[in-house]
Design goal:
This protein is mostly beta strands and about 425 residues long. A hairpin with a 5-residue loop joins strand 17 and strand 18. The radius of gyration is 21 Å and the shape is globular. Helices cover about 5% and strands about 45% of the residues.
Length: about 425
């Protein structure tokens, strides 16, 4: 059995689960209270690839950071896979020769390559998006997590966190350009970059590092990098805080608010997910703009478009996992979908489609009303983090793998997984 290397936020929630259930006992207990659609089944509607190489279209937009950009918008104008969708290649971290346990994979896409890092996989790899074949490997991470592909002049740079520091790696060749470390870096946090610097969690605070040189810009108290834009870095700490990207000084804070890193920014507003609520705050001064009260579930990072906020949730002891689509202006509910005992680990929004990753299901829904476009199910798939570019969807998993979905020719339908066994009824005495 593999060890549990869950991120800080999940470890915290597991520890306080019982207390949370008691604290929110008076709230709604299920997404059904909000009339969420409950799918009747999850039988796969797509097949596997008929060829080893996918016909990946050129993308107008990359997905170079974990939630697409430093603002964590999780949205793109590219369409993603919509028609004649197939499940293509699958990359396992163990394919690199790594021994021992692995954890969440966070695929990002930039400049015609896929880049993957894992918490315990010891390697950062670059993959061919059409075949999943490894183009280069950087194996000196000690351990790694989310990665970001950054603009560093003529040659893009991949920044990957390791146990002891940040590695700046040439995106084309996989050679190291710089290393920043203090010997005590946290390897399970977010990495975002803006204003010429990359921001990452260290066990002794938040670090701002110059992209061009790898030199320290500043450090500040904190342990949950959230999202960044221009002059402002948002931390998902308790309390929720905004820092200056220039010098790390605090700009404002919101007491009694703890997003645990579930933060996104768009057009001067910050959107956060907490336990049971999604909230919007003015980026300039932290003034509350609206609050949406869902079921008493744990909300993930919101994906934000020009007019919608799309946010999934993980189940708690008193509520199941759900997907909500809200009006960005006022937080009003447009539609929602109940996943019951499944956690919604990640979402990505493309042109007209929402891609949803749950414990064992990946599906595409229409943004307008939540109608199903396609669904793929694999028992124990453990799907977590999606990324979209062109007609390609990549979904990382919680056990060190990346699966590619694309448009193309199928070699046949994917069998429906065997359902979880039902305990036999106790015979009467």
């Amino acid at each position: 059995m593999r060890e549990d290397h869950a991120p800080t936020r999940r470890r915290y929630l597991q520890a306080v689960g019982v207390a949370s259930a008691v604290a929110v006992a008076g709230c709604n207990s299920s997404g059904r209270d909000l009339n969420c659609t409950r799918p009747s089944g999850y039988a796969s509607t797509i097949g596997v690839a008929a060829a080893d190489e996918l016909d990946v279209t050129d993308a107008a937009r990359d997905w170079p950071q974990g939630e697409r950009d430093s603002r964590n918008t999780g949205a793109t104008g590219d369409p993603g896979p919509r028609e004649n969708v197939i499940r293509g290649w699958r990359f396992e971290v163990t394919d690199t020769g790594t021994e021992g346990p692995v954890d969440d994979c966070y695929p990002v896409i930039a400049d015609g390559r896929v880049y993957v890092g894992t918490f315990e996989g010891d390697a950062l790899v670059a993959l061919d998006p059409a075949t999943g074949v490894v183009e280069w490997r950087y194996d000196r991470l000690s351990s790694g997590g989310q990665v970001a592909v950054l603009d560093a002049g003529d040659d893009p740079l991949v920044v990957a966190p390791g146990a002891n520091g940040l590695h700046g790696v040439d995106a084309a060749t996989g050679t190291r350009r710089w290393f920043y470390g203090d010997g005590s870096f946290d390897h399970d946090g977010n990495v975002v970059a803006t204003d010429g610097a990359v921001f990452a969690n260290g066990r002794n605070g938040v670090h701002a590092v110059e992209i061009a040189s790898g030199d320290r810009r500043w450090t500040a108290d904190g342990n949950q990098v959230g999202a960044a834009t221009g002059e402002t870095l948002l931390l998902g700490d308790s309390p929720f805080r905004a820092l200056s990207t220039a010098d790390g000084t605090e700009r404002w804070r919101v007491e009694d608010t703890t997003p645990y890193g579930s933060v996104a920014i768009r057009d001067g507003t910050a959107y956060i997910g907490e336990l049971g609520t999604v909230e919007a705050y003015a980026l300039a001064d932290g003034t509350e703009e609206w609050v949406f009260e869902g079921a008493t579930e744990d909300f993930r990072v919101p994906a934000v478009t020009a007019d919608r906020v799309v946010v999934g949730s993980a189940r708690t002891e008193v509520a199941g996992g759900n997907l909500y689509v809200l009006d960005r202006a006022d937080g009003g509910l447009q539609w929602c979908r109940s996943y019951g005992d499944r956690d919604v680990h990640g979402t990505a929004v493309a042109d007209g489609a929402v891609y949803v990753a749950t414990d064992d299901v990946v599906e595409a829904l229409t943004t307008a009303g939540g109608g199903r476009i396609w669904v793929y199910r694999e028992q124990y798939g453990n799907y977590a983090t999606p990324a979209v570019t062109g007609n390609l969807l990549l979904v990382g998993t919680g056990d060190g793998a990346v699966t590619a979905f694309c448009e193309g020719e199928s070699s046949g339908p994917v069998p429906t997984p065997t359902p979880d066994p039902t305990p036999p009824e106790t015979p009467p005495e």
